[in-house]
Amino acid sequence: MYIPKQFDEPRVEVLHALMRARPLSALVTLASGGINANHIPLMLSAEPSPFGTLHGHVARANPLWNDFQAEVEVLAIFKGPDAYITPSWYATKAETGKVVPTWNYAVAHAYGVLRIIDDATWLRTHLTALTAHNEGGFPSPWQVSDAPHDFTEKLMGAIVGIEIVISRLSGKWKVSQNQLAQNQAGVIEGLRALGGDERCAMAALVEAGKTSV
Predict the structure, then answer these.
(1) Where are the beta strands (DSSP E) in 118-158?
(2) Which end of the chain is more exposed for a tag (fewer CB within 10 A), N or C?
(3) What is the spatial distance between Cα 160 and Cα 38, in angstroms, rounded to a whole number?
């Protein structure tokens, strides 16, 4: 990934926060027929330091788990907020006219070796933790044990676990750091005026990026 210096986000804790908040990754592997991409929720564990480990599962019918180059790193891409940025929001548009549109976004790229785990005990532990993480915000969280045991056992027989110990981690926060303060202020105001979760989340990143990146 091309990362200009002003857009580099090297802080592991920031990248981990994005990966936990938006766990649906694009998992890129090298298969016998070429590059393959699957969209898979991956749960992050902080250990081992410094980058942690990703855990997930795929359908047994998915060729990902038995058709990949074991000696080649895989790439899990986690996408944060993104938004189109119109040059009309820049204060310098009226001053010089030397402005163009762009797209702001935040992404984390995690690399590592893919390990396949075909073990019922591991899968149950993984699914229990994954469910607890995602159901925690609901008033009546669903648990794996809420479903009949024979039903979940049958479903678990149709999936395979995957694990990636992260060997490399990189992040790109393209959030208007290359703009003057008055242009950043215009972007924040414009995004919030349009509204929507993604735009407001990007406005918050632009606001934070003015001093923290």
Answers:
(1) none
(2) N
(3) 14
Rounded-to-integer distance, Cα 122 and Cα 105, Å: 35
> pLDDT tens, 16-42?
999 999 999 999 999 999 999 999 999
Percent residues over pLDDT 70 in the chain? 98
d(CA 126, CA 184): 42
**b/e map of 4-33 (b: 16 or more CB within 10 Å)?**
eeebebeebebbbebbeebbebebbbbeee
Q: In whole angstroms, what is the distance from residue 82 CA to residue 104 CA?
A: 5
Q: At what angle do helices 197-212 and 181-194 cross, to 10 degrees?
A: 160
Please, are residues 213 and 9 in contact by the beta-carbon 8 Å criterion?
yes
Report all structural domains of the chain as residue ranges with CATH numbers, in order of start.
5-82+103-176 (2.30.110.10)
